[in-house]
Specification:
This protein has 20 helices and six strands. The protein is α/β, with parallel strands linked by helices. The protein folds into two domains: 2-194, 3-Layer(aba) Sandwich (Rossmann fold); 205-394, Hypothetical protein af1432, CATH 1.10.3210. The protein binds fe (ii) ion (2 copies).
Length: 395
Amino acid sequence: MKIGIYGGTFNPIHNTHIDIAEAAKNQFNLDIVYFLVSGTPPHKSTNESVADLCRLEMVHLAVDGIDGFFIDDREFYRAGKSFSYITMTEYHNEHPDDELFFIMGSDSLLNFTTWVKPDVISKYATILVAPRLGDNYDLIEKAINNYTLEFSGDFKLINYEANGLSSSAIRKAISEESKAPDYINESVYEYIVQHNLYSKYIYSMDYVRKLDQEMEKELKPSRYVHTLGVAHQAYSLAVRWNYPAVTAMVAGMLHDCAKCISDEKRINVCEKNNIPITEIEYKYPHLLHGKVGAYYAKEKYGILDSQVAHAIAVHTTGCPAMNLLDKIIFVADYIEPGRDKQPRLDILRAMAYTDLDRCVYMILEDTVNFLNESPDMVDPTTIDTFEYYRKSLNK
Ligand SMILES: [Fe+2]
Ligand SMILES: [Fe+2]
């Protein structure tokens, strides 16, 4: 069997990665290609390590189901620094009768002598070189000839027309323009949006502590304690569901920031700033604390991240097709450690970590049951959200 091994960070994976693997597979008659997702250098921060698990999940979204393509996550989960010669030695021992092909970019080829034990890599595998846009082919040819002699290995160029796409350009485009580049898989892009990846808005724990002090001044003592519970619960759920955890904490910290102001003030803020007020919100203005909270998050606390504002705005009623952060805040608000009145809290608390959508649905179910005792208080959005999740779970 002929096995291709294509290593990379895939941050994020895009169409060129797939095209290069296809080109190598066809040209060299490879039976299978493994996408070898590289691990995290030990010095990276927690925030970035959340994005690391996302890298692996995105490779799954892009690769799963393509004939002959598989994922190898051994380097991803390996402690410490991962060297290619170790992995290639393992492959060689695991597949003694197979032919191995190691796919690398032309930039890596030109640095090949700086790798640790390049001779081991080229001893066990034929090196397949993927060209990059703007390559100097004379230089690559020369390197290939030199290495062939130096390492007595086999180095071959993949027939592939390089297009200049790169993961760094994609990260930049998403961060600056927040729009879908047309050269990444649709479900990978959807994942990037849901998980708020490559955002230009990144928060520090110092900033969370600052918000904590503000909320202590702004809120009644019991509301402040609840807020701390929601912030920590949101952090924990965000870690579980691979959402930037400090961002989730910021949203949790601010979700009730407009809870301890008067009804008149809430209506006033909305009317002055063209925030629409529904009939039921006029009747029960406390329902507006989500919308006003989202407004305060931006104007008073300088939060420009639209996902944070949206999660705050919809945290009381939810809304159909909530995004990941909306769900995290909606659930955290209901199950934070200080809550003890709601029914079946132990089930909901466990469900939040195994099936977030089902947990959202069960909370809505309990809320609708509770509100049915006083029907005129029911916000139609709660009913719409409940119906949306009932249908989507039944599918
Ligand atoms: Fe609230
Ligand atoms: Fe709350």
